Amino acid sequence: MQKLTPFFPKLFARCTRAASAVEFALVTPLFLAMVFGIVMFGSYFAVIHGVQQLAAEAARVSIAGLNDTERGNLARNYVTANAATYPLITPAKLGVTAAVSSGDANVFVVTLNYDASQMFIYALPSFVPVPSPAIVRSAAIPRGGY
Question: Any idea where the domains of the chain sit in the sequence?
């Protein structure tokens, strides 16, 4: 064992035996917080993307309808049949609205509302800003598909 001398602070400052362990202990929590944040927000963005894709595909399917009622039914049936193919989307929390655009009578709009309040991103501590749990995405398509 080393005898303590009056120059102990100088010896302590030059000692690097545990420097890696201290650096690891300081950097690891920050690194893990960043990785988990990327994963959690990435999953939220994947849900947003999935809802938008469903809306776009439902709007494309609705072109085949002869009238607005049939177009709406085609869009709702498409969403009901295909929502389960998206792994992060719970079909029971998905709402579909399909109607003619209020701004242009020749445009048919499919709007999907998704309640994401049960996703694990909302279990984060309160100091982390989280997005709105209501995801609303729309897709519009002109009549005739052109």
Answer: 18-145
Q: Output the DSSP codes for the chain.
A: -PPP-TTHHHHHHH--TTHHHHHHHHHHHHHHHHHHHHHHHHHHHHHHHHHHHHHHHHHHHGGG-SSHHHHHHHHHHHHHHHGGGSTT--GGGEEEEEEE-SS-TTEEEEEEEEE-TTSGGGGS-TTS----SEEEEEEEEEGGG-
Q: What are phi and psi of 65, to 5 degrees?
A: -70, 145
* 138: Cβ contacts below 8 Å, ≥ 6 apart: 55, 109, 110, 111, 112
Q: Which of 24, 29, 33 is nearest to 127 (CA)?
A: 33
Q: What is the pLDDT along the chain (146 residues), one digit of tens a residue?
A: 555 555 566 665 666 677 888 888 999 999 998 898 888 889 999 999 999 999 999 999 999 888 999 999 999 999 999 999 999 999 999 999 999 999 898 899 999 999 999 988 888 777 778 889 999 999 999 986 55
Are 139 and 109 in contact, with CB atoms under 8 Å apart? yes
